[in-house]
Amino acid sequence: MCASGKYNSRGPALIPRMKIKHRIYYITLFSVVLLGLVATGMFQFWPHSIESTADWTLDKRSIHDAPLIRLPVSSPIPERGDLSCRMHTCFDVYRCGYNPKNRIKVYIYPLQRFADELGVPISSTGLSREYNDLLSAISDSDFYTDDVTRACLFIPSIDVLNQNSLRIRETAQALAMLPRWDKGMNHLLFNMLPGGPPDYNTALDVPRDRALLAGGGFSTWTYRQGYDISIPVYSPLSADVELPERQPGPRRYFILSSQTAIHREYRAELERLKEENGEALLLLDKCSNLSQGAASARKRCYKGQVYDYPQILQESSFCVVLRGARLGQATLSDVLQAGCVPVILADSYILPFSEVLDWKRASVVIPEEKLSEMYTILKSIPHRQVEEMQRQARWFWDAYFSSMKAVGLTTLQIINDRIYPYAARTYEQWNNPPVVKWSSVNSPLFLPLIPPRAPGFTAVVLTYDRVESLFRVITEISKVPSLAKLLVVTPRKKFKCPECTAIDGLSLDQTHMVERSECINKFASVFGTMPLKVVEHRADPVLYKDDFPEKLKSFPNIGSL
Amino acid sequence: MQAKKRYLIVLSAGACLALLFCLGGVRLPAAGRRSRHDRSRRSDQPWPHYSDPLHRFQPWDREDTEEFNLHTSPRQKKEANTSAYRGRRCRMDSCFDFSACHRNGFKVYVYPPQKGEKISESYQNILSSIEGSRFYTADPGQACLFVLSLDTLDRDQLSPQYVHNLKTKVQNLPLWNDGRNHLIFNLYSGTWPDYTEDLGFDIGQAMLAKASISADNFRPNFDVSIPLFSKEHPRTGGERGFLKYNSIPPFRKYMLVFKGKRYLTGIGSDTRNALYHVHNAEDVVLLTTCKHGKDWQKHKDARCDKDNAEYDKYDYKEMLHNSTFCLVPRGRRLGSFRFLEALQAACVPVVLSNGWELPFSEIIDWNRATVIGDERLLLQIPTTVRSIHPDKILSLRQQTQFLWEAYFSSVEKIVLTTLEIIQDRVLEHGSRSSLMWNSHPGGLFALPQYSAYQGDFPFYYATLGIKPYPKFTAVIHAVSPLVSQSQPILKLLVAVARSQYCAQILVLWNCDKPLPAKQRWPATSVPVIVIEGENKVMSSRFVPYETIVTDAVLSLDEDTVLSTTEVDFAFTVWQSFPERIVGYPARSHFWDSNKERWGYTSKWTNDYSMVLTGAAFFHRYYHHLYTNYLPTTLKSMVDQLANCEDILMNFLVSAVTKLPPIKVTQKKQYKETMMGQSSRASRWADPDHFAQRQTCMNKFASWFGGMPLIHSQMRLDPVLFKDQVSILRKKYRDIERL
């Protein structure tokens, strides 16, 4: 830009006076500049081919290339999670600061492998496929930053999804060794299976200072409201099995129980319900004749009859989700995917993403001690509501449960909403499925207000070049007592039907009507729906055309034209 | 000269070249940061997409089943929880006994006042609101929730209202039971200098309904955060919000205002002391005064004189009404009066009170009505509020008004909201959804006992994108015996049954004579169900009969004269306004300034505020509301007079919708028939009847705490009604034929 500017302003005047040698010199010089420009442009807009090869080589990268860190025995251990932590006490908001996009920046620690002094790794599984998916999704999202100094939230690459595979003390030491750990401030851990036998704590047992916990089995006693995030227990079946969305409506079974790890007392209770209600209730358990393994996760049995799981979930209106040893159950995810309404019996359980999701629209929560009344309670729910819940359940799965990416980004969005509450997603955005988003009407003026007469109204008169009829309108309208202001708008366009009279307006012009029909179709296609509604009524004054003395009527002249 | 020029050109061109490469070089990584693909190319920092065969996450523990089955039974575990989680860790699961509530419903008992105990006016208002509510029971054996008669509102030891020896007094209550199922109201706790949230007595397992409660002390889904309200807060009714109309664009004279005390030292002083940094004396006006208490001059700082002078220049009321946002910083305690003041004034509160559990946070989505700031980011507040889009401001402002009128404008509303929240926890699967709490008409008017499904209510069709059921049920109120085949009720029945939208007809037999034989009723294409009214009283016409399955109810007097066309038309109108009463005969109210009371008129006037339920469509939910929401006193008054049930229904619907009913066209003979030829002329001819209706109006207005009726000047007629076009082109032509 700089070069061409020079050329334009001075070049043409100079060149004729210059010697050939100089001219060639200048031409070469500008050509080089031009070439440089073109090359820069090429490089900017055509980087993908260069890059994909680079990507390809990088995809070959293995977790075994990650540096191995040995933890000294005496390495410091963080404190246990502080139950009184809240965003205003344990979270450093200055790191997030004011941000015109109202979006937090998230940093992911590069992968390291941790082991104790003897070389035994801190985790029996290392990085799981699911946690890798989660971190990939975050690194591909708009939340991600690779600049650790600009980050508001830090995510360790240490996989703590499943506590069973962790060595608690060593994992804690590894966390404390992270370069920006700083008492866990602004660090986020993802855990889906907390606790272990025999007590099964409802939050991750790894000491973690002030770190935020996105946990998959919180009870009301371990969940720090407004600080922690309750997340679902991801079901790997989601990735393996495709269950097409089914239309809401009555299904073959009324209630289905498909969990295998049900406490024997509860199973006895369910058997009793089954005896009372027969066919309406399908009670499945694991198949005794099948060997344990991945295949067994996909089969369920009832008296020797084998059913495909999770497909069978789609045959039922309600599906029982009972607490096991843990409160959070992966079954919930399968059930939602099948568009089956979850019946949740897990006292004190904090439902996934309950901070933003309205579970009353997608589930039925029943206290455990009322398991025996489950049938009666569910029968009392109107059909229309059941259908809406089925649709809502599936939508929750699609939007928030279906992949590790969905779980991860939803968690970040919830934290984002807390930090920028004035830019938070609304209830409707979180909870309305697309079909409702299209069909619902949310008026920007939703408060029932009957405005006072005093401020009057402003008349806006659109005029073409027909001064006479404009004056007529102005004279008439200025007689109105409530008129506060009159605004005349003159577009450049000519009035298109010169032969039309004032009363007929343009309605006689056939092409005009055709044009307007086209407009309507165009608008409807852009809106994606026809927003206009047809009504058969019209507002008139109360005594309009009634057999009543005209002088006693408020608006006697209406309809006199 | 030439050489100089040449050198200049060469130099500048060279510079340009250098700049270009420089720019190009800089832009490359910048672009890389923007493009996601570029990132993974950059070596060590970002997350590489590892493609190793990784372990899979296994949420199903194989050992789980056996292990878990060996372990304690769920019931034992629950009991263990109950004893472990007490005091500050109380939750409904551990510190509340549901059994009484499930047995007798949600009933609230108030201890009788103790001799010699003074009760503050505010606490008296709370107690009488409970006693006047439908939850009240005088029998502690029936109660699910207990409320003390000892005044616990003010627990500031320095306050004159402070009740001494509360600890002993509470322990001595025979029903105390370590506070189980008790609800304790509190507005102020702690005192100078630290203002802790300690109440000065052991509340045991009792729930707290407390103002200014911090998230630290708040036990989620157990305590209820209530707003701080003043002694002057009205018991019932309450003032309306100040917003009279929406202005677009929504900006007011000031962007952000505050006027209040500054404490100089001690707890809660930091934010207020720093406000002057943000004050710009133009559209951000934040004023503080150091004057408070006797010895303020002792702590006086360098800014005090200047601040105090500035403080006196502005009028608080004027600022409140003319500002888009109102700052609500914490005071000594977390909550302040500013919050409700701003809410009522439609001045969007900007809350700066870290850790404050906002009022009714369990059910109210405050992001819809306030801006929740962070005290640590005070200096960013002006930028933040300026960045809020005008559409959002418009919506925030309207929501302040909705919330104020739905939950805060009177002590009664605050108390009822508290009780309803607790009731929702007890009901669990049948409780209100967030949508019901946060949209018009609010949770106090949307009773979950009617249905937990929003689509069953008249208020949420548009939000959910659904429509009411396209048929109606006619309910005919019969009071005179069937003697001849030409009786109006039979004509009416036939006319209504002929409507294409009629699903069924319900004849409510409120006549002393026995039910007529089945064959006496005319044969119709829709089912006619005859039921005997409960006790044959007036209110029985609004009982939510289970036989009514349609959303719309057409309520009819037995002597109403209507044609099928009129019914059809009115029903199509109702489908557009399912939350309102849509009908024919209209009446009006007026303020009689001589008698200082409300008057009732049946004259033909240019406006109306009631549509009589002798011929009107409304949503069946109003049957439920009439029967279950209104107090027995009003319903029995209606029953005793055998009058005013229609006025009461109009009061109720207008109180809920804040809108007038809708009158539709009718043939003009209706009135004459009703007044003259009716078989049951007595009711309307009786001069007492009219006087009674005046009395009713005033009784109702006092219970509602104001006049909910609203006038309308509009009548809905069919399009083309009495227009000069061929009658054959008109769909509802019978309406204009006489």
UniProtKB/TrEMBL annotation, chain A:
Gene Ontology biological-process annotations: heparan sulfate proteoglycan biosynthetic process
Cellular compartments per GO CC: endoplasmic reticulum membrane
Bilayer-spanning residue ranges: 24-46
Membrane-topology descriptor: Single-pass type II membrane protein
The keyword Coiled coil is annotated on this UniProt entry: yes
Coiled coil, from the record: 256-283
Residue span(s) of domain Exostosin GT47: 101-381
GO molecular function: glycosyltransferase activity
Broad class of the protein's primary localization: endoplasmic reticulum
InterPro entries: Exostosin (IPR004263), Exostosin_GT47 (IPR040911), GT64_dom (IPR015338), Nucleotide-diphossugar_trans (IPR029044)
Superkingdom of origin: Eukaryota
Localization (cell): Endoplasmic reticulum membrane
Keywords: Coiled coil, Disulfide bond, Endoplasmic reticulum, Membrane, Transferase, Transmembrane, Transmembrane helix
Pfam families reported in the protein's UniProt record: Exostosin_GT47, Glyco_transf_64
Glycosyl transferase domain location: 489-544
Family note: Belongs to the glycosyltransferase 47 family.
Protein known as: Exostosin glycosyltransferase 2
Organism: Oryzias sinensis
Taxonomic classification: Eukaryota, Metazoa, Chordata, Craniata, Vertebrata
From TrEMBL, chain B:
Subcellular location: Endoplasmic reticulum membrane
GO molecular function terms noted in the UniProt entry: glucuronosyl-N-acetylglucosaminyl-proteoglycan 4-alpha-N-acetylglucosaminyltransferase activity; metal ion binding; N-acetylglucosaminyl-proteoglycan 4-beta-glucuronosyltransferase activity
Topological type in the membrane: Single-pass type II membrane protein
InterPro entries, A to Z: Exostosin, Exostosin_GT47, GT64_dom, Nucleotide-diphossugar_trans
Domain Exostosin GT47: 104-388
GO cellular component: endoplasmic reticulum membrane; Golgi apparatus
Chief site of localization: endoplasmic reticulum
Reactions the enzyme catalyzes: 3-O-{[(1->4)-beta-D-GlcA-(1->4)-alpha-D-GlcNAc](n)-(1->4)-beta-D-GlcA-(1->3)-beta-D-Gal-(1->3)-beta-D-Gal-(1->4)-beta-D-Xyl}-L-seryl-[protein] + UDP-N-acetyl-alpha-D-glucosamine = 3-O-{alpha-D-GlcNAc-[(1->4)-beta-D-GlcA-(1->4)-alpha-D-GlcNAc](n)-(1->4)-beta-D-GlcA-(1->3)-beta-D-Gal-(1->3)-beta-D-Gal-(1->4)-beta-D-Xyl}-L-seryl-[protein] + UDP + H(+); 3-O-{alpha-D-GlcNAc-[(1->4)-beta-D-GlcA-(1->4)-alpha-D-GlcNAc](n)-(1->4)-beta-D-GlcA-(1->3)-beta-D-Gal-(1->3)-beta-D-Gal-(1->4)-beta-D-Xyl}-L-seryl-[protein] + UDP-alpha-D-glucuronate = 3-O-{[(1->4)-beta-D-GlcA-(1->4)-alpha-D-GlcNAc](n+1)-(1->4)-beta-D-GlcA-(1->3)-beta-D-Gal-(1->3)-beta-D-Gal-(1->4)-beta-D-Xyl}-L-seryl-[protein] + UDP + H(+)
Cofactor: Mn(2+)
Gene3D superfamilies: Spore Coat Polysaccharide Biosynthesis Protein SpsA, Chain A
Pathways involved: Protein modification; protein glycosylation
GO biological process: heparan sulfate proteoglycan biosynthetic process; ossification
SUPFAM superfamilies found in the cross-reference section: Nucleotide-diphospho-sugar transferases (SSF53448)
Keywords for the protein's UniProt record, in alphabetical order: Disulfide bond, Endoplasmic reticulum, Glycoprotein, Glycosyltransferase, Manganese, Membrane, Metal-binding, Signal-anchor, Transferase, Transmembrane, Transmembrane helix
Region of interest: Disordered: 33-54
Record-annotated Glycosyl transferase domain positions: 472-721
KW Nucleus (keyword) present: no
Functional note: Glycosyltransferase required for the biosynthesis of heparan-sulfate.
Family recorded in the similarity comment: Belongs to the glycosyltransferase 47 family.
The protein, known as: Exostosin glycosyltransferase 1b
Native source organism of the sequence: Oryzias sinensis (Chinese medaka)
